[in-house]
């Protein structure tokens, strides 16, 4: 008798890949915009902040279901906390604000944090696509990673966690600078200070 193997519906997988591609494209666009300078929006900043945290936490949680030991959460928490604190201080020297002639507030800087987060996100996604594929949506029989796949998953999780911490620190610094500007405690020039403040 021929054994009938269970089939996996690839439609959710295809939709997921399409959404991720659009997400990566959006983050890449956001990275380039921050390198050149972009108009500040508090709502947009908070929205992106929430999206970055949601994606980072979601992929980390999925890793534990795929066989990553729970003790990995300890170094992950340490990394995200330490990188957020460090970036909060570091980004203060890398982020610049300025106003245009019509009074709009623009800012730039801290692009390296986006690059690290994007690299971690793509690497983490590649692990699931390469070793699990469409079966990542079959929650009735979750595939357990082992060997090199497991180690690769742990490494990319920690990289993603590091990038997430950097973006958390950067976002908090940006919002604090905006608060100080709105309260009149900090002043901004009318032209971008591009030479004095590196975009990275």
Question: Would you mind describing this structure in some detail?
Answer:
- The protein has 200 residues and is mainly α.
- The chain has one domain (13-182).
- Strands 1-3-2 form a 3-stranded antiparallel β-sheet.
- Mean pLDDT is 79; it is low at 1-8.
- The chain is built from 5 helices and 3 strands.
List its traits.
5 helices, 5% strand
Percent range of helical residues: 55-70%
Widest beta sheet: strand line-up: 1-3-2
Taking pLDDT < 50 over at least 5 consecutive residues as the criterion, the unreliable ranges are: 1-8
Shape: elongated
What order do the helices and strands come in, and which of them pair?
Blueprint: H1 11-36, E1 38-39, H2 42-65, H3 73-90, E2 96-99, E3 105-108, H4 111-131, H5 147-182
Précis, in short:
This protein has one domain (13-182).
